[in-house]
Automatic annotation (TrEMBL):
The keyword Transcription regulation does not apply. It comes from the Bacteria. Keywords: Signal. It comes from Cryobacterium serini. Belongs to the bacterial solute-binding protein 8 family. NCBIfam families: F420-O_ABCperi. Pfam families: Peripla_BP_2. InterPro entries: ABC_Transporter_SBP (IPR050902), ABC_transptr_periplasmic_BD (IPR002491), ABC_trnsptr_F420-0_sub-bd_pred (IPR022287). Residues 1-24 form the signal peptide. This is Putative F420-0 ABC transporter substrate-binding protein. Residues 60-329 form the Fe/B12 periplasmic-binding domain.
Length: 329
């Protein structure tokens, strides 16, 4: 077996690292290979169920999910991304040039071989589930290989799950990522800009009832009361019909949607689950055809990548305000 195969076996079984494996995979695997710590290092972050300590700015980063990739590009460290994966849609226009040369290794969750073959020293994931034996690798095993990991704090589960998620939480992640990746000034500027944009939002309504429809046909998966859907809807002046559900997203029955009869439906548009497909379902299913929002085609469409906690959440709220104003004309 080659060294990469041996390392993958070690990851899969969570056994002790075999001799020479770390050196084959990560330039940060031994003290001699670790760059001298610069100003602001080490950085320590309490991330989901663990403490992450970063001794120096990561130089070979793999990003998983649009939210992680877009933040890195916005911080100006795109030249250090050796691979990205699981992008939920195209980059926003503001990042198209910066991200033009992204090495997209998978349209979905990449496997360990694809990730470790890039010799990364750090992996930034948008979801905790990105770090499994069937995905990029388990976090403990990756750490043994000298590969640092970080999960978007908004996606943490259990006691570390934001309850509720707020824009302050999102801005804190940007600042923490800035510290981890050696881009603190850029992070501070980005947060300042987003705070100013958030402060200028002017919802056209404060009580328009809304359903946040993410996916699902037989059983819809919808925005609940403590995650980014609720945060964005609240900023846009929309009243979430499932705001009383203490979760980020949840599965519901169409009966409860029909009973609530929302005034508008927010549709999440992803490459793997388009807004058009959801509209087709809503308008063809006799059960949902009766909804006022469907009969009057009162849809607000938001790109998936703008709806997970990240740099585009203020933009999503602003777009929802504009679209609602157009619907009300």
């Amino acid at each position: 077996m080659n060294r990469l195969t041996v390392c993958l076996a070690a990851l899969a079984t969570s056994t002790l690292l075999l001799s020479g494996c770390a050196a084959a995979l990560s330039p940060a695997a031994t003290p001699a290979q670790t760059p001298a710590a610069g100003a602001g290092y080490p950085v320590t972050a309490f991330n989901c169920d663990r403490v992450v300590t970063v001794e120096s700015a990561p130089e070979r980063i793999v990003s998983i999910k649009s939210s992680a990739t877009e933040l890195l590009l916005a911080l100006g460290v795109g030249d250090r991304i050796v691979g990205s994966a699981f992008l939920d849609g195209p980059l926003p226009e503001s990042l198209e040039t910066t991200g033009a040369d992204l090495n997209v290794i998978s349209d979905f969750l990449p496997g360990q071989e694809a990730v470790l073959g890039l010799n990364p020293d750090f992996i930034y994931g948008g979801w905790e589930s990105n770090f499994t034996a069937d995905g990029a690798g388990e976090r403990d095993a990756l750490e043994t290989l000298g590969v640092g990991t970080y999960v978007s704090p908004a996606a943490c589960k259990g006691e570390r799950m934001p309850n509720p998620l707020t824009f302050d939480t999102v801005f804190s992640e940007i600042e923490e990522a800035g510290a981890i990746f050696g881009a603190a000034p850029a992070a501070a500027d980005l947060v300042s800009t987003l705070r100013n944009e958030l402060a200028t939002l002017e919802p056209v309504s404060t009580d328009t009832s809304a359903l946040w429809y993410s996916s699902g046909t037989t059983t819809p998966y919808v925005g609940a009361g403590i995650g980014s859907p609720e945060m964005i809807m609240k900023a846009a002046g929309l009243s979430n019909i499932f705001a009383d559900v203490s979760d980020t997203w949840t599965s519901v029955g169409w009966e409860s949607v029909i009973e609530a009869n929302p005034s508008v439906i927010v549709l999440v548009d992803a490459t793997w689950n388009t807004a058009a497909s959801k509209i087709a379902h809503l308008e063809s299913d006799p059960a949902t055809q009766v909804l006022d929002a469907v009969k009057n085609q009162r849809y607000i469409i938001l790109p998936f990548a703008s709806t997970e906690a990240g740099i585009r959440n203020v933009e999503a709220a602003s777009s929802a305000i504009t679209q609602l104003a157009d619907l009300n004309e």
